[in-house]
Structures
1.
Amino acid sequence: MANCFSIFFTINLVISFFVAGAADRKGRSFGGFLALSIFIGWVIPLIVVLVMAPQQKLPPVENGSQAKCPDCAELISTEAKVCKHCGKRLADNTYEI
């Protein structure tokens, strides 16, 4: 009985790492999806990873130190986490298209 549980747990853990890796390739948090997959199961996080769009970097403008906000199109620093004009939160200087 204990042997079956350890095999099941190991398979679940391996699949959770694959789901987290797929999320990481799409620009999302590896650790966040790994924790989510371990605690609630890997099926729902896998579906979320499969349907979500990859994140892309903000396109730099002029000298490369500024970019246009994807919501309000105002110039902001490429290191900004929040647009100072409209308040849009930019996760790791990325946005979804």
2.
Amino acid sequence: MRKKNKKVLVALSGGVDSAVAAALLLQKGYEVVGAFMIQYENSSNVRSQSLERESCWRNDYREALRVAAHLRITLFQFDFTKDYKKHVLDYLYREYRANRTPNPDVLCNTFIKFGVWLEKAKDLDFDYLATGHYARNMRTSKMYESKKSENYFSTSNFQNASQFVCYHLMMAKDKIKDQTYFLHQLNQEQLSRVLFPIGDYTKPQVRRLAKRFGLPNATREESMGICFVGEVPMKDFLKNQIKTKVGDIVLSSGEIIGKHEGLELYTIGQRHIGVQGSRPLYVVDKYLKTNELVVGFEADPLLYKKEITIDDVRWVSGQEPKFPLTSEVRLRHRQALQKCRIMNNESGIMVEFGKPQRAVTPGQFAVLYKNGECLGGGVIQ
């Protein structure tokens, strides 16, 4: 079926994934317009040599312009720096000051990419927003069961009085590149207006498609780092915003072996610079009251958890499942899925692991899966 009358705003980042997404949509007959979003400008008060460079978005914008010209589509440019500061950067600093390790990419997707970007697409009368994420958005129809469902699904999504449309966030075909971990907070309303054109392709296939479409950025390397900020050493980035206090580094046995630069700059599981004998040391805990950074060896029991509590839990379906729930969990991007059991008790949602998990980090997200579907997730306490 041709999609000639459907208008799609494609977020062109300058990278190959979003460029291929736009080309695929054109091939399918959609009316496609590109958009380049500005989220972050280097601040003049940053003094780190690694940050004193041209704003990272300018090279990306040039690449996006080249792609748009090649595809013969219009390219808008929008500035969302204020929104990014409010929803992502302020959250990032707040969490680090609380001695937690946040994941800004999750909030970036929830509030920026599928928040203000999606609202802009709606305001401009586009039917969909499309991105180059490795994920799949599957639509099904389910029987309408109760009035409660009306709280979670827009009445515009109902096909008739007895059915409603439900959107499922599914893992990408490329399990290595799968990005559903970062998308787990998306809700039904957001998913109803979102397209993931490359979710059914692997990265090598995307590269081959880019060459087949003749895209000018077909061989461009991937960028890494903080969402929209770039490849910046986290310590340099944080030191400009967070006051830190030097303290003792101690072994889990209590022996003092050095000084740390500030607890906020370290995360659980991080390899500590230094050895004890010939064995490397890892951050296993933080003692906030005494300002001590606790380190230990790989086998240190403090480095492993059998169960955790998660807070601010979001369910993609909009409805809480029946507990207990047997599922799989991912505690970080690209971690292999781990078997778990989910329970709801007085202290909140509890995740019990099939086997102890290494470096479970407060502030990060535990994301739940069942049969390849991302169910949602919550913040690790």
3.
Amino acid sequence: MKLITLIQTAGLLHLGLLCAGATMPRAVGLGTHLAGLPPFIRRLVWVYYGFIASMLAGFGTLTFCFADRMAAGDPVARALCLYLACFWGARWVVAGWVFDVRPYLTHWFYRVGHYATTLVFFYLTLIYSWVAWQGGGS
């Protein structure tokens, strides 16, 4: 498989995470959990949630549209890939060793989704690390 295709797959996976994230508030009953908090804190959580969504859309769009430049090893592309590798590596660690999502995995669909997203975090870490390391030497 060509490197550009692997990179574009990473871009599309960001958009998949965006779709998966849209199901999260209902899956965990976020509105109920936030209801007892002061209005400022409730809004803060929703604003953070929105910023995360915009970052996923941006990361995915940049990755998909500029996969050829990333594969070519442009210095700025390598720097972006290094940043994204660190970002997704940290997210993979948090998913596996910080968050205890077991109380929310009440349905097979949620369990599959959780494991799938964790695999996506790992894939994104690997592909961005590879591109940052290779620098066009694919």
